[in-house]
Amino acid sequence: MTGKMLVGVHCVGKKNGERKEYFLYQPFDNQESMKRWGCQAVTAQTGFGAALALELIGRGIWKDAGVFSPEYFEPKPYLKLMEESGFRYEIKELPA
């Protein structure tokens, strides 16, 4: 199977009273995903995000009582673990 995919999130908000706009995204090539991980790009993107979140919970980095989505927690440890795991992402600051 060949092809490419891109999954991203567009964020708009304020930082220090100034409007900010960012696009965080994960580009995937299906052939590269099959070679590196033995699964399709869509499978890697779906599963690895959850696996990284569980790793942070298991290490005690993400902790709180109750049920929360990954977006609830501080993102920097997640992004660092993505880099350490070779799970590529990019962040672009857009003109506000």
Automatic annotation (TrEMBL):
It comes from the Bacteria. This is Saccharopine dehydrogenase-like C-terminal domain-containing protein. It comes from Marvinbryantia formatexigens DSM 14469.
